[in-house]
Amino acid sequence: MDYNDFELVAFWVLCLAAALPLVAIGTYVHVRRGARALDWYMFLGCLGSIVYGLFAGMAVGAVFPPPYVPGLSEGKGLDMRGISLVFGSWFGGILGFLATLATFATSKSVRWRRHRRAARSARVHTPGTGQE
What is this structure's pTM? Predict the structure, then answer.
């Protein structure tokens, strides 16, 4: 596997590495925690996605730098290796942000619908009680 293959795999991993865990964490927060924890999830998820988008590509590029090529190091060409890592982290940050928003909105709508059904069932007229 050469650096071009690694860069392609790393691009797709960086694109999905923020969104998938955020959806899983959002589902966990919806099922196990209260509405207040969901607000914290929204805040921290969006903030984390922004930080991820800014720094994840550069961190991967620093850990796995492109191999040395004499022609490019002498200024005889434009070295664009590693740019897909930065783009992958940007796309991953945007996808993570959108996944956080979608998970938050879905969870809030489900909670709102449950609350509304419970309130409506409490107001239902029960025959024989004299309530109308």
Answer: 0.81
